[in-house]
TrEMBL record:
This is Cytochrome c biogenesis protein ResB. The chain crosses the membrane at residues 60-78, 114-136, 206-224, 483-502. It is found in: Membrane. It comes from the Bacteria. Residues 58-538 form the ResB-like domain. It is a multi-pass membrane protein. Pfam families: ResB. Keywords: Cytochrome c-type biogenesis, Membrane, Transmembrane, Transmembrane helix. It comes from Streptomyces solicathayae.
């Protein structure tokens, strides 16, 4: 028996000569030039038809997918209005030349821009327009049978032949049984057995593109119905999932406040530990928030929220985002009455949690003459003090090893009664006057826990209490399309793997009676693309079939005396 006698890809001319046997190995539509559909001679209809065929081709779908990925790049590099308006404002202030250009190109709102939406919609249409006809075509192929053998099997890329004494019908029956046992779809057509295998390649191809549509739908669904809000909570404080409780809140255009999950939680404690020495000194080792949460109609439960381990309540997830300190202060007026007492959250400005903020006394304070006034204090806090004798202070470690707070006091109008929103961590000093000491110097003082700064002229005092609470910042999100997007991503990976590693191929076995009375067996294979596995598989099939229909012995040589011409 001979080995495979022909390898390599069959050229386009040969594919056409194979007729039906070489057709429908793929459901990919044939590419046609504009002239093939009439070109300018067909007018508008012809060009529309050609444009539709181009739009629904796999090549254009891949180009659009690449453009969509490329369009998402500026959304990752440039601050987005939907994510952080403050960063966008800061970027515009720092780049006055680029900002107008970015505004015109909608680079601050990439995912809602006209050009990104156009790519998104075109990709959606392209995938649907490609998948629907290919799916129906593939269903038709599954309902049909492998085509009969071409007239000349020698033209196929993998081919072998031998002669046997077995009857043609026996060879075909053995070949049919063999191919079916190897999970080929096989049947007998005339003098040959036709078989096909690898349909999962096209299933994977279609699954991959359907999964892309699922992911696009999930993305759109998530953008329309998503919600995301932030909340800073001091230890002992609570939160209820209502719109008024959020420090900031963003949502999709189709989101309703009625979609908010009915739940809430209390921050029982925050625990943070840090590396004490070595190159990673100051790196967080423990970073977790212990909470007590409740759902409507259910009992309270305990939970611990860690980084990348959110609390899940219904369709909502509560993520731990940040942490800081909230020193407890007590403010008294000139008569000794307490006008303010509470923990004041301060915002970190470095990795060692050096923090700044403002203390605002808006109501209840009166000066020594009984006149209503407002007080404001600029606070600068370090959990582990350093910088003594250098004219400055900073933190050298994030833990509360040596806490110090510097305060600067102001009196006047905080401008909080005008109805305009104001940053709670900053003082508006336009109508405020800084306290001065008896020598006329501006009053500022560093305090240790338990120490008090006395305000001049009987204006009162502020005490840095020994209790220092911690705060944690949380983000509460609802992303209804996450599960669908994950399912689409997994399906896309499975489909892509099938389309890459499974080869769709056809095998034919022809057995006919030769002129010398022996049976001529021909085996040939054809794949969608050139692959070394096809000749190997054909050789394996041929060896197995050859065992059942072995090569016929060569006819014996005539004796010397019996040869013609010998006497």
């Amino acid at each position: 028996m001979s080995k495979t006698e022909a390898t390599g890809a069959t050229d386009a001319g040969d594919q056409q000569d194979l007729g039906e046997a070489g057709a429908q190995l793929s459901t990919a539509p044939k590419e046609e030039a504009p002239s093939a559909v009439g070109g300018p001679t067909l007018g508008v209809v012809g060009w529309i038809r050609w444009f539709w065929r181009q739009l629904t081709s796999m090549r254009v779908a891949l180009i659009l997918l690449f453009l969509l990925s490329l369009g998402a790049v500026p959304g990752s590099l440039i601050p987005q209005t939907s994510a952080d308006e403050l960063k966008v404002t800061q970027f515009k202030a720092a780049h006055p030349t680029l900002s107008p250009i970015y505004d015109k190109l909608q680079l601050f709102d990439v995912y809602s821009s006209v050009w990104f939406s156009a790519i998104y919609i075109l990709l959606f249409v392209s995938l649907i327009g490609c998948i629907v006809p290919r799916t129906w075509q593939f269903v038709g192929q599954l309902r049909g049978r492998p085509p009969g053998a071409p007239g000349r099997l020698t033209r196929l890329p993998a081919y072998t032949t031998w002669r046997t004494d077995s009857e043609p019908e026996q060879v075909r029956e053995a070949a049919l049984a063999l191919l079916k046992s190897r999970r080929f779809r096989a049947h007998t057509v005339g003098d040959a057995v036709a078989a096909e295998k690898g349909y999962l390649r096209e299933v994977g191809n279609l699954l991959f593109h359907i999964a892309l549509i699922v992911m696009l739908v999930a993305f759109a669904w998530g953008q329309l119905l998503k919600s995301e809000g932030g909340k800073l909570i001091v230890e002992g404080g609570g939160f209820s999932n209502t719109l008024t409780q959020y420090d900031d809140f963003k949502s999709g255009s189709q989101f309703s406040t009625h979609d908010l999950e009915p739940f809430g939680f209390t921050l029982d404690s925050f625990t943070g530990t840090y590396e004490k020495a070595g190159p990673q000194r100051g790196t967080a080792r423990t970073f977790e928030a212990a909470v007590t949460y409740f759902e409507a109609g259910k009992k309270e439960k305990k939970a611990v929220i860690r980084v990348n381990e959110p609390l899940k309540v219904g369709d909502s997830k509560v993520y731990l985002i940040a942490h800081g300190y909230a020193p407890v202060v007590t403010v008294k007026d000139g008569r000794g009455a307490v006008v303010y007492r509470g923990a004041v959250p301060l915002l970190p400005i470095d990795n060692n949690i050096t923090s700044t903020g403002a203390i605002k006394v808006m109501d209840g304070y009166r000066d020594k003459n009984g006149k209503k006034q407002q007080l404001g204090f600029q606070a600068f806090f370090v959990p582990t003090f350093a910088g003594a004798g250098k004219g400055s202070m900073f933190s050298q470690f994030p833990a509360l090893d040596f806490p110090v707070m510097a305060l600067t006091g102001y009196t006047g109008d905080l401008k909080v009664d005008g109805g305009l929103p104001q940053n709670v961590y900053q003082l508006d000093k336009t109508r405020m006057k800084q306290f001065t000491d008896k020598d006329g110097n501006k009053l500022a003082q560093r305090l240790l826990p338990g120490e008090t700064m006395t305000l001049p002229d009987g204006a009162g005092s502020i005490t840095f209490e020994k209790e220092i609470k911690e705060w944690a910042s949380f983000t509460v999100t609802q992303q209804p399309g996450d599960g669908l997007a994950l399912a689409g991503a997994l399906a896309a990976i499975a489909g892509l793997s099938a389309s890459l590693f499974i080869q769709r191929r056809r095998v034919w076995v022809r057995a006919v009676r030769g002129d010398d009375g022996t049976t001529v067996v021909e085996m040939a294979g054809l794949g969608r693309s050139e692959s070394a596995k096809l000749p190997e598989e054909l050789a394996d099939l041929a060896v197995t079939l050859h065992a059942k229909a072995p090569t016929a012995p060569e006819p014996a040589e005539p004796a010397e005396a019996e040869r013609p011409g010998n006497k």
